Amino acid sequence: MNTQEVAQRWAELCRQGEFKTCYEELYSPQCVSIEPKGAMVERAEGLEEMAAKGKKWNDNLKEVHSAEVGEPIVAENFFTARQAMDITFQDGNRVNFEEMSLYEVRDGKIVMEQFFYTPQK
After folding, report:
1. What is the pTM of this model?
2. If we measure between CA atoms, which residue out of 84, 78, 71 comes closest to residue 106?
3. Of 22, 84, 99, 116, whose CB is crowded by the most CB atoms within 10 A?
């Protein structure tokens, strides 16, 4: 798949909540995930660490009220998209959360993801 096809498939799977399928189908086993300084997990390398990061995030959520994924914008072997969620954390704090995500694609697989947002205090 080229970058446009990966981006479209990524958006489709994320909108359906099919995150496991997304990682299995679109991500390189050596993928790197980067979050802003102060995030729960700032860096994860490889699918195993990324899965642990995802579990930590999910364990911290009490409820997802809504979620949206914007249309990907592609440039060469990169794509970006806006994501937004209305979520309640385990501590009862409800937050409208927005982020920009950037992905690098090589040989039809996502090799890097980086998220841009202001971490919750």
Report:
1. 0.92
2. 78
3. 22
